[in-house]
């Protein structure tokens, strides 16, 4: 009985820390959005948004798949007492893709500055931000995998507040330029990481430094398994980026950078609550769900997934209604006047992210049962649909068409995710039945 109470007490504490951290981060994001849109015109904000999109793509390709592998294999490593070996293997695995992505980002940025030389410092700071983002992701991933939600909440909150504050200070000091905003984001991220590392090393935490030059045989085996899991996911950030970011580039190419800035501000404001809430629930629910899947606890896995789906669906519907009914008031509170004219578009974007949140929970069934190829197929189909649907609508209707297309392609992705998750679930159930029969036969 005491063990059960301790487990629920731990879950409650973890949940409280996760939502406290996400809540503080959400406030920072909203406050920063209002301050920055007040201080810079849409064209400047649009340039920053497009540069951040490129950083997100490079980060997703180089870092995201390996971090997903770490999250999946951490319960197994922790059970065997091999967390340190997992961290060293992950850091070694990260070197080559990070270097390749960094090179690609720098070369692409250099090509851009040939046509837009005034953006040279913007590109330089964006490339540096990629490195800082990679280091931040490693720390947050291992904190979440170890269910150290308090430390993770402090790091995420510090990062979320320091970025916009530093950006506002640099814009005030050097003028309303895209380089000043990007430099502020970089400075805020580095300050948060420096504070975290100072505290971690001060407490004598282990495995906080870089990996050694050679790996033990055990770490080498873990490295091989990380790559086996992560490789099918390598293309996933690209297709995810297409689904979530390509429309603003289409708007920028067809309607101009200023229109892209307005659309990016509306899109960010409408999507952020859904993303942060879904991420909060995932940070709490993912590792317990994976742990049940690892030991073959079908009843526990079903219960965890049902709770996860129910919470995400209910809150997403409520958030969508909030944006549909009160978009004008939300825009008046959180956006500068130049960005408010198209506030009704946030209702369409919110509807799309309501559907996407449910789809991403269902995709976790595939992650848990190592069907990463299935996740890729669902996301890739969604990305193709997003471009196919959005391009003609944006061409004829501008940013209004871009917003209206969001629920169309995310709704299609939800249907495909549900079908794939059902098949994976059925296959896992059949495999468990066969294994149980084989075990019974061997006993007889």
Can you walk through the features of this model?
With 444 residues, the chain is an all-alpha fold. It folds into 2 domains: 19-203 and 219-234, no CATH class; 235-429, no CATH class. The protein is built from 13 helices and no strands. It has helices at residues 2-39, 42-62, 64-80, 83-115, 120-145, 149-174, 178-202, 217-230, 236-255, 257-294, 298-334, 345-368, 372-443. The protein is globular, with a radius of gyration of 22 Å. 49% of the residues are buried.
Strand coverage percent: under 5%
Number of helices: 13
The oligomeric status of these chains comes to: single chain
The general outline is: globular
How many domains in all?
Answer: 2
- Cα end-to-end separation: 35 Å
* Element pattern in H and E: HHHHHHHHHHHHH
Query: Helix amount, in percent?
Result: over 70%
Low-confidence stretches are: 206-213, 433-444
Task: Tell me the radius of gyration.
Answer: 22 Å
Largest sheet: none
